[in-house]
Amino acid sequence: MAEDEREHVRVAIVGSGFGGLGAAARLRREGVTDFVVLERAGSVGGTWRDNTYPGCACDVPSHLYSFSFAPHADWPRTFSGQEHIRAYLEQVTDRFGLRPHLRLDTEVKRMRWDSARLCWEIETSGGRLCADVVVSATGPLSDPKVPDVPGIGTFPGKVFHSARWDHDYDLRGKRVAMVGTGASAIQIVPAIQPEVEHLTLFQRTPPWVLPRVDRDISDVERRLHRTLPFTAKLRRGLLWGIREVQVQAFTKYPSGLGPVERMAERNIARAVKDPALRARLTPDYRIGCKRILLSNTYYPALARENVDVLASGLAEIDGSTLVAADGSTAEVDAIVFGTGFHVTDMPIAERVVGADGRTLAQAWAETGMRSLRGASAAGFPNWLTIIGPNTGLGNSSMILMIESQLNYMADFVRQLDVLGGRAALDARPEAVQAWNDRVQERMKRTVWNTGGCTSWYLDANGRNTTVWPGTTTEFRSATRRVDLAEYEVLRVRGRDSDDTKVEVGA
Predict the structure, then answer these.
(1) Which keywords belong to this entry (predicted)?
(2) Dihedral sign computed on CA atoms, order 97, 101, 106, 111
(3) Residue 349 class from Cβ within 10 Å (0-12 exposed, 13-18 middle, 19+ buried)?
(4) Mean pLDDT across the stretch 352-377?
(5) pTM of the predicted structure, to 2 decimals
């Protein structure tokens, strides 16, 4: 296809989870219809499409884990399961007329900034196109991380990651190893424990687990929310407000988490009577340093006779024998890795080539992930992230942060329209530096940096590039609008001549 015939769109959105669908819906609400949503899978849903493991559910209350502009009155439980959240995202897709914009089974292979034409050249599995603006909404929980365990090639049984669950493999009567103790593992363990012959949990670090106050939402409540929508808003507001108050303990006063820690210790004691097992399951770091998990069934499952907890990570594999770092062994038929995702080294960064010819991964190699207000990276004009660096939360709903970033994206597009003509915005390096200096300074006193643990919030250099060290209200204020002083305005001159130039400045 000739260059001039290549498809051109105003905005290309990468990913169709909460971030991507939210961006698409916001563009439609802004009156922007010239956009596409590029999705490598065959349907929408993001992490709620990919994670179908037994027991998969959200640990954020349902009425807070939805868009404020797309309320849902029919959540079946206070903490909804994967199938209900995915169904909600399908409803959002239809409600805002997003299906004509979807390009399913279309994986982004490469995105390269064209400085002469001020647009992104995008190579996908379904062809090529160019876009004035790219919104990357691939999310931090999209690419599973499987450790390269020595000897894994010798294992004769079944191996899969929790986010790629093999439903064709029957675990009933099998000896199963669960590797990892994160949010997925604490849901999987009680779901499969009654069915398997034996379950061995490889626990490198025990998590803090609090009771899950979950229940059915009654028909009366649902009818009330449908009939009087303000009651659902009030419910959402109360859930939000409680977490806004709680976050102060995480970000400013970690010592105040002591009572919560004692509550978690009582939760262990109630379910686990064996003192040796109880000791293995009790963390030695401040609660909140790693994400606090919620479950009423995790500890009771670990106390069953067909479960062993090895207080050590998986070190090597010799045939069907799994060897822990402390020398303990287990004979198993199947291995389930609940070992998380590529969060601080997002694979999409390797596919994004900026103005100077470097990939985003190369630009972040020395500094770690960083961006302006969680959205813009210097040297990558008109490229925005949803759930970018330091936008994660440790105690509330990510949908709140996503909506703030959608506000920023909408104003970014509006500013380009105001500038008129062929224009692009490139974050100034000094603005990115100043923003990240402020974030990292605030991070110093948070429980995530001072709690005495090593978590997936930290990159290889021990730098917290994942979590936002403040309230969602503060982030909403910081991303309400684009400050053009933090950007260089790029313009094209002489588009029809051979000496096309880019002028920097307003």
Answers:
(1) FAD, Flavoprotein, Monooxygenase, Oxidoreductase
(2) negative
(3) buried
(4) 95
(5) 0.94
pLDDT tens figures, 449-492 = 999 999 989 988 889 999 999 999 999 999 999 999 999 999 98
Question: Rounded to whole angstroms, what are the CA distances from 40 to 46, 142, 230, 287?
Answer: 10, 11, 38, 37
DSSP 479: T
Query: Do the domain assignments include residue 235?
Result: no
The parent domain of residue 423 ranges over: 3-143+342-504
The percent of the chain in helix, strand and coil, each rounded to the nearest 5, is: 35, 20, 45
Cα distances (angstroms) measured from residue 143 to each of 118, 138, 385: 30, 9, 16
Residues 38-76 pLDDT 10s: 999 999 999 999 999 999 999 999 999 999 999 999 999
Whether the CB-CB separation of 384 and 409 falls below 8 Å is answered with yes
Q: In which band, very low, low, confident or very high, does the pLDDT at 500 lie, cut at 50, 70 and 90?
A: very low
Residues 412 and 482 in one domain: yes
Residue 491 lies in a domain: yes
Q: How many domains is the chain partitioned into structurally?
A: 2
Determine the Cα–Cα distance for residues 201 and 450; give it in Å rounded to an integer: 28
